[in-house]
Design goal:
It is built from four helices and 21 strands. It is mainly beta. The structure holds zinc ion. It holds the Pfam family PHYHIP_C.
Length: about 300
């Protein structure tokens, strides 16, 4: 029997199964393999011919799959003779493309809300972290590879190197909140030190984790840096003066910054940052572990922050 399995297109998000044999039935079995957190997909579908049969399944990005097919031929007496399973084909689907990320970006824009002023970026860590940076890295925080939090299929997870910063403010004070999930010590730096006309801004991700909070990941990369080159190929670029999440503009010779109030922004800066650019101090608030996004899993059922390609 001739059964052709097509792993669809450049996006590698669909599988097409076609059979050109007449008077046959076929079954296609497909499973997401090697990734325990992706549910195994068992597609069993018997389709009577004669006609060209086209099975069509949407796959998750960045996932390894196996696919195998089986055919059945109808005999004169009306019974079917079923073939062995075919050779198993293994393949891995690609990360989200810029097209997918642009769809995600448009969904994030819908809920971003109005813009509030900000003046600093900040990064909370434990005291030991800052001691280590001073003693072993010559006072400069070093980029590290981003964990797997956020959207499954995000092209920055496990690949982009950067340093996480926050930039949220409290609406009543205009200052960063005193609480943080990431440690009692905070490095605070004037916004223009990290974000200015010499940096590019990219949209990285949009997700939630089974709560009401939505997170938007942005990447700031100095123009021409390795991080900038990485992002240019993979992420939608934002106009630094005009976007719904984080803006930088000049008013009367002074840089003015705004951030979206209805999403929690996490900013990844792709170059090392010297501690002498800002200040390190202990916060007076609490350590709210529940708001940590370290390796957090995205809620795949949320309609606000999921696009349809991955299901
Ligand atoms: Zn969501």
């Amino acid at each position: 029997p001739t059964v052709l399995v097509f792993v669809g297109g450049q996006r590698l998000t669909n599988v097409y199964v076609e059979s050109y044999m007449l008077s046959k039935m076929f079954t296609c079995r497909m499973a997401a393999s090697h990734l325990p957190d992706v549910p195994t997909k068992l597609v069993a579908k018997a389709v009577p011919l004669p006609m060209t049969v086209r099975g069509h399944w949407f796959l998750s990005p960045r996932t390894e799959y196996t696919v195998a097919v089986q055919t059945a031929s109808k005999q004169v007496d009306g019974d079917y003779v079923v073939s062995e399973w075919s050779e198993i084909i293994e393949f891995c689907t690609a990360d989200y493309s810029k097209v997918h990320l642009t769809q995600l970006l448009e969904k994030a824009e819908v809920i971003a809300g109005r813009m509030l002023k900000l003046s600093v970026f900040y990064r909370n860590q434990h005291k030991e972290y800052f001691d280590y940076i001073r003693e072993h890295h010559g006072n400069a925080m070093q980029p590290s590879v981003k964990d797997n939090s956020g959207s499954h299929g995000s092209p920055i997870s496990g690949k982009l190197e950067g340093i996480f910063f926050s930039c949220n403010t409290e609406f009543n004070t205009g200052k960063p909140p005193q609480d943080s999930p990431y440690g009692r010590y905070r490095f605070e730096v004037a916004a223009e030190k990290l974000f200015n006309p010499n940096t590019n801004l990219y949209f990285g991700d949009f997700y939630c984790m089974y709560t009401a909070y939505h997170y938007v990941i942005l990447v700031i990369a100095p123009v021409g840096s390795p991080g900038d080159e990485f992002c240019k190929q993979r992420l939608p670029q934002l106009n630094i003066k005009d976007n719904k999440f984080l803006t930088c503009d000049e008013e009367d010779g002074v840089m003015v910054y705004h951030h979206a109030q209805d999403v929690i922004l996490e900013v990844i800066y792709t170059d090392p940052v010297d501690l002498s650019l800002g200040t390190v101090a202990e916060i007076t608030g609490h350590q709210l572990m529940s708001l940590s996004t370290a390796n957090a899993k995205k809620d795949p059922s949320c309609k606000t922050c999921n696009i349809s390609v991955g299901r």
